[in-house]
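haha ok so turns out i had the wrong file open the whole time. this is the CORRECT one, sorry everyone. sequence first:
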Amino acid sequence: MRKYVIYIIVTVISVFDIAGKGIEQKNVLCDTTISKNINGAVVMSEHLNLYVKDDYIKFENSYKKKVLIPFVNEFRNYDIVVYSGRYRELWRILEDDTLECMDAWNVDSLDIQKYMPVRIERNGTRRLFVYGGAQFNGGDGSSTYMLNVRLGTFLYKNYLDVAINANIGAVSSSGSNEGSGDIGISGRAYLPLIIKNYQISPYLGAGANYSFMPTSYSELMLYGGITWAIGPGALDVGIQYGTKSNFGLTFGYTFIPSL
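then structure:
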C-alpha cells in the first residue's frame, strides 16, 4: 500500500509601516503565486510599495491582479506602487471594489510634458497696476487740462491689459474756465523690446469714455505710445484720440506693486 505525503506551503510576507512614529509590522498570508513574484513590501507615505521579481512585468494585468489582491484585502486604504528595477506601476481600488492599474512608467524615459509639475509663464502671475498722469489738448481757442488715473490688470502673458479710467480737469475757453471729467474703460496691447539694455514697450489700445462735465456725451477712444520700464513700474508717453474730444498728449507713470 502506497503512502502519499501532502505538503501545505504557506508563505508569510511581512509588511512594515514606516511613518515617523516607530515601525509597525503586519503579516499578510500569501500563496505560492505571491512568493514567486514578490520580494518584499513596505508602507510609506500612504502607499504600499511592492518590490517584485523580474518576471512580473511580462504578465498580463489579469494575472498581476491575482498577485496583488491579497495585499489589497489587508491595505484597502492604500494605493499600491509596484517596483521592478526602473519600471513602476500604480494600482488603486475603485469605488466598485475593482482593482485597476492607473499608470505605468519607466523612470529613465519619462514623458516630461506629462510629468511637468508646473507650467512656466513668461512673466509669472497676473499683476495689478495703477497709472497716474496728465493730459493736454487744445485747438479752436480752447484748451483742456486733465489729471488721469488708470486702475487695471495685465492679461495674457502681460502682452495685454484692461483698466478703468477716471479723468478730472478743466476746460479753458475765451478766458473762462469750467470743470471737465469723464470715466471709461480701455485696453492696450504691448510689444516688449530690449534696446541697449532698456526695456521699452510700444503700445496700441482702444476704449470707451463717458463725459459727465461740462457736457454729457460718450465717445470711442484710440491710444498709442511707449512705456519705459523704470523702477517698480514704467514711464508712459503717448497720444490719444477721441471721436469727440479729438487729439490729446498724455504722460505719466504706471506703478506695478509687488503683491
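The CA atoms of residues 91 and 101 lie 4 Å apart.
again sry for the mixup
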